[in-house]
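Task: fold both queries, return tokens.
Query 1:
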Amino acid sequence: MKPIWAWFGYDEPNYTYMKDGKKLLTELSKLSPVPVYVRTHSLLVTGDGTAALKWGSTNAYTEDASGKPIYNWAIIDSIFDTYVNRGMKPLAQIGFMPQALSTHPEPYRHYWKPGDPYNDIITGWAYPPKDYDKWRELVYQWVKHSVERYGQKEVESWYWEVWNEPNGAYWKGTREEFFKLYDYAADGLKKALPTAKIGGINIAGTRTKGAIEWTRQFIEHCISGKNYATGRVGSPLDAVLFHAKGWPRLVNGNIRMDMAPQLQDIRTGMEIAQSYQQTKNLPLIVGESDPEGCAACGMATNPENAYRNGVMYSSYTAASFARKYELATRKKANLLGAVSWSFEFEDQPWFYGFRDLATNGVDKPVLNVFRMLGMMKGGRVQVQSNRMVALDSVVKNSVHGALSDIGGLAAKSKQTASIMLWNYHDDDKPAAYETVSLQIAGLTAKKASLSIYMIDKNNSNAYEVWKKMGSPQNPTAAQITELEKAGQLSRILNSKVKPKAGKITLEVKLQRHAVALALLEW
């Protein structure tokens, strides 16, 4: 059971080393049995490091009056130090364009806020470089510095990738100019560290006709196209990256989720990679894999995003990751990771409805799904359920039917068995408890310890506790302590069991959108 979930990302790089950013990264590093990979935007953007929504900067590259490059790695170092010191790894994004290199340097800094047109964020950082040799040298110097600071072995374990969603608003050049951008970046990286791993292209809307065309042309360029930087054939490609997003909306005033587009994106990305002999076995990374597309669009401006604070986000996450595993198995794809583009937003209103894992240092229910996943050791094993919606149906229609999706994801190691259960439906409507009969077979131990962990309205849920407090925007220190405790994963059962003929049967009651983990240890 490859930990494809241990990948996270966010737009605002300067949150990384701020108070709540460090706290959350520490929690993510501790919940995972393997190093967590982290991706963030704007690592090469010009500015003073001030954090803001959908904005960040490091001032890594400026020029003097004569046009000579000036490199300053201080802010990037503080970001990567925060990761490496916690045993985490960068999925290092080479972008965006420094102001001094941009072909359209003005306007550059934006001041976007929720409710503003999304295109307001697209400024001088989104344009091609005016000098590709300087762009290559910037990447070379960055990677060379990284090796000097962290060591060759450490940097060899990272992944690097160029830009973000070049088929969308993030790139104001042509397709060929993007391929040129990639070639020069890859050449600079490989000159600094030949064994460094680089990939692309983090396309948006992977399932769509235009994105498929973009991705195929990019892969074919890397396989057999003329390299703009070297003049040789092909360009380095060590991983294939693409994006996958769902589509929640309001239906008669109620939230309706839709994971079908997200899973269709993932299926399409796998199929494209596997259609080429040169890429079919490469690692696949879903560079952003989420219920929808704008993490900084809160529920005040986008009411369909109100799912983010409570357990609906939790059950969606559990049910969708199970299908990612199913797709990878069916397609025999080398799915290495799926980046949840969800982090935290520093100094913002409590439970504003951002797509984040914590609010003001208090964990949201969804974070506890990742804590559960981190407890699942060993290899994935078969789960059968008479209420788990078939993969093909979910990929086509999500879970819109009369019955909810009650399914499981299970793993077994030498001394543990773990089964995650969920009760998921696309619609945010109340429903009665469901009693799940959980039968576990094939056990060889004569006795075991059984723990059941629960995420629902009553457990592992700081949001419900906050609402009962009266939804304070200035909670007291005592209230914050209570909320922090409520945000942790709740164990609702701890007992001893004795399998009979290698089997045990449990009953687990699940609220609508609840997620449970049954953990056996012997």
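Query 1 returned. Query 2:
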Amino acid sequence: MNPVVLNPETLSPEDVVAVARHHARVELDAETLGRVAESRRAVESLAGRERPVYGVSTGFGALAQRHIPHSLRAQLQKSLVRSHAAGIGEPVEPEVVRALMLLRARTLATGRTGVRPEVLSTYVDILNAGITPLVPEYGSLGCSGDLAPLAACALVAMGEGEVLDSEGNPAPAAEALTEAGIAPVELAEKEGLALINGTDGMLGMLVLALHDLENLLTTADISAAMSVEALHGTDRVFLPELFEPLRPHPGQTLSAANTLSALEDSAIVASHRDSTHLVQDAYSLRCAPQVTGAARDAAEHAYRVASRELRAAVDNPVVLDSGEVSSNGNFHGAPLAHTLDFLAIVAADVASIAERRTDRLMDTSRNQGLPPFLADDPGVDSGLMIAHYTQAALVSEAKRLAAPASVDSIPSSAMQEDHVSMGWSAARKLRRSLDNLAAVLGVEVSAAARGIDLRSLAPAPAAQAVLDLIRKQIPGPGPDRFLAPELADAKSLIASGDLVRAVENAVELGHTIPRRL
């Protein structure tokens, strides 16, 4: 994999995924290090003045009124990091921590934070060494940045705190740095604050979620087409003349095109095209592009938000072009929190309509001649009855996760921070919701594949590609068997992107956001 150059103007969402998830190497160039050194000189100039400067020669938050003498400023920065590394709970996923550290390093590289070049280099070295700070799940209110999570990373850069070893077990940070040949940083004025005051955790989780959501929405187009085939639905409602000319939402136009492509050359669909067995298909079939397409439009909006945030320099205070250091409120996570909550609503709705399609496959009054619950010997066998129960439980959980976090706010820091975004919480629940969606679609694909297998005619090439893939791990129809491993396999094939790639080898599909993401 090609290395990622840490240029704050060009770092892309795709780069974030490459470093966070695939451990791409990060490189710094001389221009970036020079820019960081220049802004540091401005901070050092201010540090010598008698007039207090927030973050340089004062306390923090509600304690900002105290002027700190030179002799205590190094201790001030250490104390800040140590006290703010106050999270609790299970460690967050290594890919989230790596995304968070990369994005914090990107902000340091802008030169707006006033840190020394060696602080930035230490973060890059930690990433390249594969060292993952232990970051507890709870501790960020999504305002003043992701304080506790970022402080846990800063603590490791100081040679303190804990990291996760290759097996995910806690280990002392000092030992990990020594083994990697990385010298701990000795923080100077403003540097502790610069390491913890950003929206990097929220943004990192948003970027990773967009990568996953694009794959899941394309999967939903495919699973909907498979359900249409299995249920003897029509493909005529996905014709392009029904979309762009009549209702020009780009997402639904794209999803309809994907669904139509996935149904192309289906002998099953062709067998009843002129039949009058149904005047209209149910909404869960007929309106699939409208729902998944709306989700695509939401994802496109979220991608724009993430792209803007990737060009930001979120810190407080920041070094301006004039050399002055100014306080600001850009650390507030509202733009990200609202977007993360929006995507959780989207994920719940896509999961909900997928479950409705699966429900139809179970019911002999609506499944067009398939056996009840797609069972081999109904009564003796229960088929996919409880697999559908599991899917329904996941959808119910997704609906609870769709309740917005960003409408909540608990004032903190003695009312200095009296309105917060809860964006970190929004990001955490979105990750769970997308994990649920992958499982929900896995159940639909399993059910639709079984329904197609029970038809006597050849499916579309797209569905055949899915069958060829999943039947390597998941047997076709037959007597009841232990289903949990099969559903886990179906989820894995979807979450990994293997299912979408298999279909793309058979038909052409479109995507809302850059496919490389």
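Both queries returned. Flag for query 2: The two ends are 14 Å apart (CA to CA).
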